[in-house]
C-alpha cells in the first residue's frame, strides 16, 4: 500500500467506483509506482470482493424487485434474467468493471480513522488482515454507504425478549420464519418487501410509527423533489432523512396482492416488549416469536469522528458533496446521493471539485 496519494477514496460500492472512474478520466493514476508528476489515487474497500453492499442483500432481492439500478459510469450492466439475485448479478458486474477499467481497489482494507496532519494532509489509518498503515492524502472521497450501520431503535423490555430479534441487514430468507409469529417493524420499502415475503410462510403483524403514505406511481419529478428535500436538510446541517420518508411507498403489483390478502394491515407502533411478545398502545399483548426490525441504516462515518465534522444540528453541513468549510473531505452516496443514480453523479461532482481544489494548491502563492 502506498504511503501517500493525492486522493483516497474510502469504499468501493457504486459511489466509490464512480469517483474512481472520474479520477481516471481526469488523469489520476493508481498510487504506488506512478511516474513523478502524475496525480494519484487509491481506493480502499473493507469487503472481501467487489459489489459493495450488494454482496450482502438477501437472496430474494431480485433484479426484478429492486427499484432500478443505474449502470456504473461508462459500462452498461449485462443483460440478465429478471429473476437473478441482485447479490449475484451486481457484485459480478462491479468486479468486471473494476478489472476492465484497472481501478486497482485494495481489499480487504478497512479505514479506522482519518485525522488532520499538521502539514495540511489527511492521514487515513487503515487495517486489513494482519497489515495496517497510513496513507497521507491531499483529499478524501468518503463512499462508505450505510449497510454496516443498521439502526435499532430502543424499546423498553427489548433485552427480556425470549424470541429472535433481527435487522434487515441480518435477513436471509423467509423460510427461516416458517410457522412463526413475526412482528415486522418499519414503514420503508425493505419493511413492506420483507413483510410481503414472510407473510407467505408465517403469521405477520406490521408495526409502524406513522401511517404509511401510499402512492400509485412515482415519476422523475417526484424523485427530483425528494432528492431536493434531502439536499436541503444536509445543507442546513441536519441528519439526512430516508428518501422513503419523503416519497412514500409505491403500490407495486405484489404489494397490491398483499393488501388484498390483508397483510398490509398496519398497527400503531408497540410501546414495550415482553419476553413473549409486544404490547400495543392500548395495553394488549401480541404474542410473537420474532421481531424483524426494518428500521433503516445510518451513514457509516465513525472513522471520520476525529475530524469533528458534525455540527449542532446533529448532521454534517454539506455544500454539494463537500463538507462545508473542509475542501479536503467529500461525502458521496450520502443523503441526497444515497441511490445508484445519485452515487454516480456525486462521484463525478466530488472529483470535479477536488481537481479544482488541487489546482488551487499548486497554483496558489508560493
Ligand atoms: P455501498 O454499496 O454500501 O458501498 C460502501 C462500501 O464501503 C462497501 O464496500 C463497504 O464495505 C465499504 N466500507 C464501509 N466502511 C468502510 C471503511 N471504514 N473502510 C473501507 N471501506 C468501507 N438504490 C437504487 O438506486 N435502486 C435500488 O433498487 C436500490 N435498492 C436498495 C435496496 C436496499 C435493501 C438498500 C439498503 C439500498 C438500496 N438502494 C437502491 C440504495 C443503493 O444501494 C445505494 O445508495 C447505492 O448503491 C450507493 O451505494 P454506496 O456506494 O454509497 O454504498
Automatic annotation (TrEMBL):
Keyword Oxidoreductase included in the entry's annotation: yes
Domain of life: Bacteria
Pfam families, alphabetized: Pyr_redox_2
Keywords: Oxidoreductase
Protein name: NAD(P)/FAD-dependent oxidoreductase
InterPro entries reported for this sequence: Auxin_biosynth/cation_transpt (IPR050982), FAD/NAD-bd_sf (IPR036188), FAD/NAD-binding_dom (IPR023753)
Keyword Oxidoreductase: yes
Residue ranges of every copy of the FAD/NAD(P)-binding domain listed in the record: 6-333
